[in-house]
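Slide 14.
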Amino acid sequence: MKKEIILNATANETRIAITEDGRLAELFVDTPETERMVGDIYLGKVARVLPGIRAAFIDIGHKQDAFLHFSDIGKNVDQYATLFEDEDADIDSDDDDDDDEVDDNPRNSGTATAESTRTVRRGFRRKKQPQDRSADSQPDINLKKGQDIIIQIIKEPVANKGVRVSSEVSLPGRYLVLIPFGGGKVGVSRKITNFREKRRLRRIVRSIMPKNYGAIIRTVAEGRDEEAIKNDLEDLLETWGEIEQSVKTESAPMLLYKDVSTTSSVIRDLFQSDVSRVVVDSKKLYREIRTYVKWFAPHMADKVELYRGREPVFDVFGVEKEIAKSLQRKVWLKSGGYIIIEPTEAMVVIDVNSGRYAANQAQELNSLRTNLEAAREIARQIRLRDIGGIIVIDCIDLEDEKNQKKVYDEFKKELRKDRAKGTVYPMTELALVQITRQRIRQNILHSFAEACPTCGGGGLVASKSSIVNRVERWLRRMVTDNKEFKWTLYVSPILADYLNDGFLSRLFRLQLKYRVRLVLQPDSNLSIDEFRFISHKQKKDLTDNYTE
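Slide 15: predicted structure.
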């Protein structure tokens, strides 16, 4: 599979496209409005503790408090607390030689965040004490209101929800993820399959790791020499030392550590040997990326190319058309079928339709082929749009259980390409396939669009007749309390035409029915469902006085 990274930079936006065999697979957008927050470390203050929902809210200086679920509070939280109390506190370390395999799968532009660290630690504990699994997943919670706590963002804010955080902190580097208070544990990415290489890397890291720290050895560390890994570890330890110093001198809420930008994290985590080239259309960004690549992987520096053409780089690689398609509700399949993607508050619903694909074949075979093609496209759209949470797919009905399993297996196979953790459930009797996918940040659509101010994002607006009914109800309430005769009615031009339509217009009938004189004024600044009543006598807007 040919894999490329294409970067398009403007004054206010950087877009990073990852293509696989010429098709857009993933897209990242870096703007001031969509600033990446996952991986940032804060010194926060506990604002509220709610045992009923097993969660706490942490003040980190944002408009909305951060959400800390009790399951995201690790057993090491008391050890982090020693940073506030005793600078020379000595914490015991467990240096056993368990062969720990972990997944350093980068789910948000490649960064192994605190959430992956939590998974690692639980993996360590499960291996050592399998009999205590249930108790281990629910540690004793001793949080108190007003308490200072170090937390790391693991999920971006979504809609009206604030960020989700964890008290288990990690620092991602190129080859390692440093885990302060990791108890000497060293995990190795399960993507490194060579046993000797895993043992070599673990031996190197353990020989240079300070007491009480832990680490995850990332996939890109495979084949690297001790000097490269040591340099990466020293940089991470230096960063953690600065964080420790800030904790002792600053007061909450306070940003302790800002993770790298989306652009930097993509290059750091995704530019690996399977990438054939990186194409950049900005000289400044090209120099920065090439300098960084020369530092960590000199043999890959020649893969970084500066695009000098006049035509936009995303047009040349066909990315712009793919982005336009990703914003559409309907996505066509090559066979003539199509899928409909409908986001809701609780989940995303995807409907599979055969469309024009109605060949003179057995219905079962026709439905199977459409479902299989849809499974491949849906898996790609999920990655491309970064859809998270619960995804329900309404497939075309299949009678044969073997065919149902084929569709289920196709979904599983395609979603293995996804770096985000997800689970696929077998097709139900109603031909529904359910997927749960880890939600780290908002859907990519939010980078290009915002809710319509008229419909509020619902996609529908009130009908003209319903708005006229609202106007009439306003008049009915007004005449029971006010004896004024003359009013100016401001409405949108569309509604003005509707009110004036016909020989006996709707406006005339309203005046006749309520014995008032209405001077109609079209106002293009008003949306179709807005209207304003101005009193001629008082010379002021009285709309709100009689609004339902």
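Speaker note: The CA atoms of residues 338 and 474 lie 45 Å apart.
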